[in-house]
Specification:
By secondary structure, this protein is an alpha+beta fold. The protein has 4 domains: 215 residues, Multidrug efflux transporter AcrB transmembrane domain (Multidrug efflux transporter AcrB transmembrane fold, Up-down Bundle); 109 residues, Alpha-Beta Plaits, CATH 3.30.70; 245 residues, Multidrug efflux transporter AcrB transmembrane domain (Multidrug efflux transporter AcrB transmembrane fold, Up-down Bundle), CATH 1.20.1640; 88 residues, Alpha-Beta Plaits, CATH 3.30.70. Helix 5 runs antiparallel to helix 7, helix 20 packs parallel to helix 23 and helix 23 packs antiparallel against helix 24. 63% of the residues lie in helices and 8% in strands. Strand 9 and strand 10 form a beta hairpin. It is elongated.
Length: 756
């Protein structure tokens, strides 16, 4: 199929390019920012398709609590912001303090109820208990709530109006005005992510260009992969915008598409263009070279890409919109990159033909200005360093395995101990310094008794006959036990629906709502306080709120991690066994991939949790690794690493089938692919590392983990451990039990055609 696609695209190149141009224009129209530029404004479909809200499947306890409240008590939850006014010298009784608060309050009130409605302030509250709760202990700080109108998405869209008023009043007149809440946190998180995205593009693309210059040496060959990647990203963003109209997509999907799109688009292009130039160097005309590249490297790309997609499908199993959005975004851009590599790229190669070697870049392009013919593709291009590595690895395979494997195993140990990985969710408290919502969080935590829990209250929902003596007694016991907990403040007011079969008890839990400490309190409420109070009572009690959602996320990840691991590992083993007709090869592949991922896990613990080298690399130190990152890294890296593994092993198998000499086949495979594999990996490392240079710790952790694992996998693992272990095992690499020999032969690359 790949040969046919290459042939068809090469014979009708202009038609293929027109089709891709139309797709790009349509997708660009869907993903374009409608606020940019004068004149008629396009609808920003992509922006409306994404959200920062955490949403779980219907089986989660927090989701059940929210559904009951929506259907039988209050309707959809309104997001609440908290506005803080703080003086550096005046207390609340000073007229200037009151005037400042009332001016801010009036400005927000003038926005209208369709945007925001301010609640009671210290100066207009009638209830003395409420009034006292709105003042800090030193009486130099006050706050008041602001209820945002509409849904979560409406609140995030409207909160900039409130932020404008806060910023306008924050003029350095002796007062500091801050705001924090789900909507403002989401808004600032979006801005920080967009900033990181732009910075990643500014850094990653130029570095990738430099690497391509070293590898390809000519202007056209360098620009072609970048062009393909950009087209694929635009088309994938457009597809995500359409899908997001029907399904919830987390805003992170945009970053995922750009990051993975740049990486795999350039990676796949590198394999095809390198093979095309090799075949041209052997004397084939451009059409024959395109067909041959499609039949060989094209099949490798197709197999690798589909393996990536199926590995990413493991993320779709997890009933959490965040994982599903990340998986979907990566799957979309990989599929588009596959389509572009197998059609868009051959069409471009057909148009440029031998001109791909023109406009040679000084020094780097000399070897392509007068390509020499060779019966062994890639041999002349990879003399020198990789020839030396090949000789050393093949001569001292056991030493090579120990020298490379031992340090990686040591790194993995840090994942399990000293101190071992500590997963959680990094919240507003680890936003970059200077982030306004971060400053507001610390003011509330330090100055007010109930802490930040007032912004994200814990909601305890009791479903049963509220007026029954058993329920009333259990409710009283629950309130008493919760009030005795040092981190919990229980509100005396209870909300009951008209039919009196649903009750809402609200509590404040101190601390960042996404932190492990807060989640531990939620689990204590669920596992100790509620069972003790409602044992034997005819009522069902659920705990909801942001912290409860996070607690459910932790539980879901714990349950589904082994399921995803089994899915990805099992599928990878099966496919590799079919492709290479061996059970030894897939066993080693699984172990090698786990080695790369495990080493990345260990290094993340050292850098981010222990802080070793964090400041040198410009990273924040954090107490936790985001709970979704290990599973995400496993799915992404296990798929991406198959590119290099299949590319290397397919060349080894191809040579082994020709010569029947395992040692010679391994040496040939290593020296003919190591340069390309390393170059492709360096491009991925550049892209991932560029995103790791952002300000948000989430991007730092994700980018660092991806970059380190890919670098280790493509250099030490693929170029040292794999060939060294194959040299040790000899013909045992190709062992397939007799009872499995009926399996079909799905080899990736066909045997080399004889050259005349």
């Amino acid at each position: 199929m790949t040969e046919w696609l290459a042939r068809a695209s090469a014979r009708r190149p202009h038609l293929v390019l027109v089709i891709w141009l139309v797709l790009g224009l349509i997708a660009g129209g869907l993903a374009v920012d409608g606020e940019m530029g004068p004149g008629p404004q396009l609808v920003d479909v992509l922006d409306r398709a994404t959200t920062t809200e955490l949403r779980l499947g219907g089986g989660a306890e927090s989701r059940k609590a929210e559904t009951l409240l929506e259907e039988r008590l209050r309707g959809p939850r309104q997001l609440r912001e908290v506005v803080i006014v703080q003086s550096d010298s005046l207390d609340l009784d000073h007229p200037d303090f009151q005037a400042k608060v009332e001016r801010v309050y009036a400005g927000i009130g003038n926005l209208g109820d369709d945007i925001a409605t301010p609640g009671p302030s210290y100066y207009n509250a009638s209830d003395i208990t409420v009034k006292l709760g709105l003042a800090s202990q030193d009486r130099m700080t006050t706050l008041f709530p602001v209820d945002m109108a509409g849904s979560f998405e409406d609140a995030v869209e409207n909160v900039p109006h409130v932020l404008d008023i806060v910023e306008h009043e924050n003029t350095g007149d002796g007062f500091r005005v801050l705001i924090v809440g789900d909507a403002s946190i989401s808004h600032e998180q979006n801005e920080l992510s967009e900033k990181d995205l732009r910075q990643g593009e500014r850094i990653g693309i130029p570095i990738a260009l430099v690497i391509l210059v070293v590898l390809f040496g000519t202007v056209i060959a360098v620009l072609m992969p970048i062009g393909l990647s950009l087209v694929c990203i635009i088309v994938a963003l457009g597809a995500a915008a359409l899908i997001g109209q029907a399904f919830d997509l987390v805003f992170f999907v945009t970053l995922m598409i750009v990051m993975i799109g740049l990486a795999v688009g350039i990676d796949y292009s590198l394999l095809i263009i390198s093979r095309f130039r090799d075949e041209m160097a052997r004397g084939l005309d451009k059409y024959a070279a395109i067909e041959r590249a499609g039949a060989t490297a094209g099949r490798t790309v197709l197999f690798s890409g589909l393996t990536v997609v199926i590995a990413l499908c493991g993320m779709l199993i997890v009933p959490f919109s965040f994982f599903q959005s990340l998986g979907l975004g990566a799957i979309l851009v990989v599929l588009v990159a596959l389509a572009g590599t197998l059609t868009f790229l051959p069409a471009n190669l057909a148009i440029h033909g031998e001109r791909i070697n023109r406009f040679a870049i000084p020094f780097f392009g000399r070897r392509w200005s007068k390509p020499s013919q060779t019966s062994e593709p890639g041999r002349t291009q990879h003399r020198g360093f990789w020839e030396t590595v090949t000789r050393i690895v093949m001569r001292y395979p056991v030493v090579s395995i120990i020298a490379v494997g031992a340090p990686m195993i040591v790194a993995i140990l840090f994942y399990f101990q000293w101190p071992g990985i500590n997963t959680g969710l990094n919240g507003v408290d680890v936003f970059p310094e200077g982030a306004e919502t971060r400053e507001a969080f610390f003011v509330i935590e330090e100055e007010f008794i109930f802490g930040f829990g007032a912004v994200n209250p814990t909601e305890i929902v009791i479903d049963g006959d509220i007026d029954s003596p058993e329920v009333q007694e259990a409710l009283g016991g629950l309130q008493t036990s919760l009030a005795a907990h040092p981190s919990i403040t229980v509100l005396p007011d209870l909300a009951v629906n008209e039919s009196r079969d649903l009750l809402l008890l609200t509590a404040f839990v101190r601390g960042e709502p996404r932190s492990r400490e807060t989640v531990d309190v939620i689990n204590t409420i669920r596992e100790e306080h509620i069972p003790a109070a409602f044992d034997g009572v005819d009522a069902v009690v659920y705990v909801g709120g942001v912290s409860a959602v996070v607690a459910d996320v932790f539980s879901i990840v714990e349950v589904y991690t082994p399921i995803v691991f089994a899915f990805v590992l099992g599928f990878s083993f099966l496919i590799l066994m079919l492709v290479f007709r061996s059970i030894v090869i897939p066993i080693k592949a699984v172990l090698m991939n786990l080695l790369s991922v495990g080493t990345a896990y260990g290094l993340m613990v050292l850098v981010f949790q222990k802080g070793i080298g964090a400041s040198l690399l410009g990273f924040q130190q954090a107490e936790v690794i985001d709970v979704w990152i290990p599973l995400f890294l496993f799915s992404i890296l296990f798929g991406l690493s198959m590119d290099y593994h299949v590319f290397l092993l397919s060349r080894i198998r191809e040579r082994y089938d020709q010569k029947g000499d395992n040692a010679e086949a391994v040496a040939y495979g290593l020296r003919s692919t190591a340069g390309i594999i390393t170059g492709a990996a360096l491009i991925m490392v550049a892209v991932f590392g560029a995103f790791a240079s952002g300000d948000t710790i989430i991007n730092q952790q994700m980018g660092f983990g991806l970059a380190v694992a890919v670098l280790l996998d493509a250099t030490l693992v693929r170029s040292v451990l794999v060939p060294a272990s194959m040299e040790v095992l000899g013909k045992g690499n190709w062992y397939l039990p007799s009872f499995l020999r009926w399996l079909p032969d799905l080899r990736v690359e066909p045997e080399e055609e004889p050259q005349g």
